[in-house]
Amino acid sequence: MKQSRSELNGLARRTTRRSLQWCLLPLVIAMAWVGCKKEATVADENNPVGTYRLVSVDRNRLPCAVQHEGRAMTVNSGGFVINADGTCSSKMLLAGSDSPIEVKATYTREGSKLTMQWQGAGTTTGTFEANTLTMNNEGKVFTYRK
Prior knowledge:
The chain has one helix spanning 5-36, and strands at 50-57, 60-61, 64-68, 71-82, 87-94, 101-110, 113-118, 123-129, 132-137, 140-145. The protein is α+β, with helices and mostly antiparallel strands.
């Protein structure tokens, strides 16, 4: 059976349209997939949350000797943890001690400034920038790094 020219043109158009649809389908799926992905997030460089290591006291690298309430002591190591829930804690290991001294606090944040209210003690302020936390505690400057 012989098909007329108009029938052949119609068949060619339908075949071309269907082929075009099949070729565009992967592109549409890819666009939908990209559009539905979670938005990329940029890390907040001024987010204080994290674990820090004590690197110096009054610009003296650890281990270093310090005076506290008339007593000389040597700070061997220390750490500081800032949690997202508004709590933080500090641990410090002194020479001659088998276990670290640990204290806990709640904190408030105002820009790069942290104000810590220690359990059973006073208030300390600190500042953070990028990966460094600096805290002034009773006139001593403690510097921590993430």
